[in-house]
């Protein structure tokens, strides 16, 4: 590439202070100054490095500190989503080409919020089965929540074998942290970044709500139980997070899966250069054609995903039962036609966890999402279909087909979420009362097919409990 083009690209990324226009909002964080953008009453900053690019020798390492810069960095475009093989049927298609250099955060705030303004903070953690997903999909914008008086942060975390990979060579290297769950390490690093920097955007670092769906919900479960995440958040929202965050497999098995992958690539387990050879593989070779649509078990297996490591990722059910977790208010639920149906993993898992946490005295607000957008010809609310309503982005998701009833449901659900982020209680003016969950009353909020939030005793409660009892 000609030197002139390289120089122009560098100048476009980090502009001198005088180049920032007066209209661009500037925030000063611990690594430098950022120029964002303003649209419709919301200021935003995108593509903010919260850690060093995890490439080369940093592949399969805990996230390292981001480099500082001089001048004002332009922060108006999303950074790359993490390396993966996208697929056409993803519920929220990516807005960037995936790459290994992907550890970036994004921030939205009301335009009037000042540094040190102490607004509640909502941190979004995307789903995608730990092999797909990213922060760039338009449906995941935080702009509409920010309009309701909160700061919203999203970020990327490593996926697939980049994010979850164990190998005897990594254990022997012993560089840093519990080797294996690098995607969870990224999540902790992002929350640490929020704690250090969100005040620069008007957010209160002591009032952070973590908010995730599917793999993101499972991540929230993991973070609730993780000793390494304690003190980094004050509330938690779990959408379709099942009843756990990681495979309860021995580390020896996780390492064998990594060895199997190496063998597939011609790298022997006892090769003294095994780790160097694995790190020298192309990003495409590490993905190896895997995504959410084709994670069929191999024989022998070459991918495990998150696993209990005893340091960062614990067995959450055991931690909750023993009281070893962040005792913060929790909102939890699933969609009516979620994965596994009414007695399956997502719905039954949410019910089980609501009972477990509320039994420990934690404020829990349980929900079920039964609403189907009016333009969809579907029976029941499918997995992930609650996201655009909680984020008030139904008009983006469904575009010109969005109806007044869709918009009303989005306004109600996003209001509950914002209230919860503000006070640890979703209730607020003009909204149907939402009671704390207790197994005795079994009261949940149903975001009903009629388009109204309705407080009910769980109509599937007995059936779910009977099915779970039969399994055990």
Automatic annotation (TrEMBL):
<dbReference type="InterPro" id="IPR029058">
    <property type="entry name" value="AB_hydrolase_fold"/>
</dbReference>
<dbReference type="InterPro" id="IPR050309">
    <property type="entry name" value="Type-B_Carboxylest/Lipase"/>
</dbReference>
<keyword id="KW-0378">Hydrolase</keyword>
<comment type="similarity">
    <text>Belongs to the type-B carboxylesterase/lipase family.</text>
</comment>
<feature type="domain" description="Carboxylesterase type B">
    <location>
        <begin position="25"/>
        <end position="338"/>
    </location>
</feature>
<feature type="signal peptide">
    <location>
        <begin position="1"/>
        <end position="19"/>
    </location>
</feature>
<feature type="domain" description="Carboxylesterase type B">
    <location>
        <begin position="345"/>
        <end position="451"/>
    </location>
</feature>
<dbReference type="Pfam" id="PF00135">
    <property type="entry name" value="COesterase"/>
</dbReference>
<dbReference type="InterPro" id="IPR002018">
    <property type="entry name" value="CarbesteraseB"/>
</dbReference>
<protein>
    <recommendedName>
        <fullName>Carboxylic ester hydrolase</fullName>
        <ecNumber>3.1.1.-</ecNumber>
    </recommendedName>
</protein>
<keyword id="KW-0732">Signal</keyword>
<dbReference type="InterPro" id="IPR019826">
    <property type="entry name" value="Carboxylesterase_B_AS"/>
</dbReference>
